[in-house]
Amino acid sequence: MTSEQDREALAGEYVLGLLDGAQREAFERDIDHDRELDTAVERWRARFAVIDQSALEISPSPEVWPRIEAGLSKSRIVKQAASHEPDRASMLQQWWDSLWLWRGAAFAGLALTAILGGTLFLASTRADRQPVLVAVLLTDANVAAAVVNTFADGRTELLPLQDIAVPKGRALQIWTLWDRQTGPRSVGLIDQAKAAPLQLTDLPLGPNQLFEITLEPASGSPTGRPTGPIIAKGLTARSL
Amino acid sequence: MAGDARQRHAINLEQELRACAGGDKNALRRIYDQECPRMIGVAQRMLRRRALAEEAVQDTFILIWKHAARFDPERGAGLTWIYAILRNRSLSILRDERRLDTDADAGAIEAVSEEDDPEAAMSKLSDADALRGCLQALPAQRRDMILLAFVQGLSHGEIAGKLGMPLGTVKSWIRRSLIALKECLG
């Protein structure tokens, strides 16, 4: 295989989605400054495009467009902030552009406040206990939506950090995953965002254990596995 | 190529993307009206779950809006730009999902419909399409590897598992098939 063929095949694998995390990131850095490689990628996309065009058409649910519109107003805020002072030094401009960073910092602060708040609340009711493991559950926009606190005596609870819209006839189900072989287990079902105890009595619990909230039918997932969209997720970490 | 497929594109996507970059929300809505159902179809072939497919499409439209100014018609068509964003988004949701969903074949969520069968995906391509001709020139198993990756978003490892073949063989066959396809398509 010549190196020319190698590059061509690599571009094809990228378009097929076959490059894994690190490979993919390295490749994307390469195409940024390698015009030829970039062209090879575009050619593969054009070659395979007909397959996507042969996909079945499925009408979107009526709520899809309103959700997109809601997302647009958020991204416009980013734009306005970015263009607010166009004459600033480019470094500063980049900081403004990466508003998500500010937001992330703000939400990290919020999450911390909530964790502290939760701890204080618990300290007043159960004076001798501090959480031993904490998981901050983030939405895909990196907004902290809830915290899972676990205590030395094995008790675990969910504390929402913000209201989560739950449509009528649906509920929020909380899951944990500690082992791929076993799969996710349901540990709670709530009809609205509120503090709730989680049922982990017979389940293992440790650091780096995944917790997630999905939107499910009111009586819980019919399959015993998550079926609805993920509202938020996060991994446990030991508290100091 | 793709004569029939292209004819349904009534709007000029490149022009609409330029309007999006200028802040015209109606342009985004026109793209949505024309492409959304097909986009959900593409995402659902990878993600299986309808709710996740809609999530991928939603995210894609927000990304289109945010990055429309980056679209460069010199580099490629608006259609491939939009579907590249959709495919990226769907793949990253798929990878996230796999952290939770441990069923090797993901069959527990929704059974693979005939729609998702790799050969079925190919048979829907027009006879006149160059890609179809070149895919048909490949041995069936090699063709399926390419289609499983592109249509269902499977990784090398998942393809190896599904076809019961060693990972190294799958990797080298896919590379060779890509080179053969490139030569065939010119």
Brief synopsis:
Chain A is of the alpha+beta class. Chain A contains six helices and eight strands.
What does this structure look like?
The complex is a heterodimer of chains A (240) and B (186). Chain A has 240 residues and is an alpha+beta fold. Chain A folds into 3 domains: 3-53, no CATH class; 64-97; 129-238, Sandwich (Immunoglobulin-like). Chain A contains 6 helices and 8 strands; from the N terminus they run ααααααββββββββ. Chain A has an 8-stranded antiparallel β-sheet with strand order 5-4-7-8-1-2-3-6, with helices on one face. In chain A, a hairpin with a 4-residue loop joins strand 2 and strand 3. Chain A is extended, with a radius of gyration of 23 Å. The N and C termini of chain A lie far apart (54 Å). Residues 76-128 of chain A have low confidence and may be disordered. Chain B has 186 residues and is mainly α. Chain B has 2 domains: 1-108, Rna Polymerase Sigma Factor, Chain: A; 112-186, Orthogonal Bundle (Arc Repressor Mutant, subunit A). Chain B has 10 helices and no strands. Chain B has helices at 3-7, 13-21, 25-47, 50-67, 78-100, 118-123, 130-136, 140-152, 156-163, 167-185. The longest helix of chain B is centred in the N-terminal third of the chain and has 23 residues, at 25-47. The radius of gyration of chain B is 18 Å and the shape is globular. Chain B starts with a helix and ends with a helix. The model of chain B is unreliable at 1-7 and 102-108 (pLDDT under 50). At the A-B interface, helix 1, helix 3, helix 4 and strand 7 of A face helix 3, helix 4, helix 5, helix 8 and helix 10 of B.
